[in-house]
Amino acid sequence: MMLDQRILKLLKETPGIISGETLAKELGVSRVAIWKAIKRLKAKGYALSIHKKGYLLEERDFFLKEDLDNLISSSLLFREAYLYNEVSSTMDIARELAEQEKRAIVIAERQTSGRGRLGRAWESEKGGLWLTLILHNPFPFKEAYLLTYLSATATAKALWEAYGLPAKVKWPNDVLVQEKKIAGILLEIKAEVDVINYALIGLGVNINNPVEKKEFLLPATSVAELLQKKVDKLPFLSQFLSIFEELYQNKGNILPEWKKLSLTLGRAVKIITSSETILGVAQDIDEEGALIVQTPKGKIKRIFSGDCFHLRDLTP
User: Fold this and answer.
1) Looking at residue 141, which CATH number applies to its domain?
2) One GO BP annotation here (predicted)?
């Protein structure tokens, strides 16, 4: 473990101020080395304050590389974890790594250019979980749609397991709690003919980060807002990766599990696609991943993508 990460670990585990002398003794390095490392950490954006008696970590809501390495040590899908304090987007980093055939997860404490579906901006401040998974040679091309359903299902289940939040899924790629958006999924695929070279699954989860109250497609919320306290992000990540891998290995369970958690099926909906607006009742997800909507006139529509709005009824 690099010195900077070892210092962060000790600072995170120490509730108050810890002296440079203690850090140097614990880590077997000079106080000068400690001082230089502290300067590097401050330059990276870690909230460290310097006192006469030593150093204080004022904000502890971040991951340690050691924790991530431990999480993926038994993974069948991922071999490496990349952790950044700030990046433009974890998807951008992951795309470069995927071209190098890395089987990895990429996490950033903050994104400056996070985005969701259709390139929409996604607020990605510190406190949230901003993650991209790199999957090589995943499902056959015709089953690629399952990756979005898989990721949303794993996210909702992990929010329940980690924090007791009754999360639900909304077509096509949102996770909600109390009808407010808490997480979103972004899927990007590189394929040739009918073969997927790799898939990037971007996941953004509002955990301890401040959320915008502006209502775009949906009002937003966070774990901290719902529980009225800040929480540790690691339990969620641990549950998410475990559930994700279990469903990945048993892909026949993905759609049934998604349907159990769905807020969309059985609801009156308005779907806006690139070519039309559809009103009707969401009936099902078919074997090709399409949302089946029955219009008021009884016509059946198969929809593969679009913005979905839940309605109280179909009254014009």
Assistant:
1) 3.30.930.10
2) regulation of DNA-templated transcription
Shared domain for 123 and 179, answered yes or no, is: yes
Q: Which domain holds residue 287?
A: 268-311
| Ramachandran quadrant class, 181 (left: phi over 0; alpha: psi -120 to 50; beta: rest) | beta
Binding residues: 111, 115-117, 181
316 in a structural domain: no
Cα 221 to Cα 218: distance, rounded to the nearest angstrom: 10
* pLDDT over 90 at 12, yes or no: no
pTM of the model: 0.88
Question: Tens digit of pLDDT for each residue in 193-241?
Answer: 788 999 999 999 999 999 876 545 689 999 999 999 999 999 999 999 9
Q: What residues are designated binding site for biotin?
A: 111, 115-117, 181
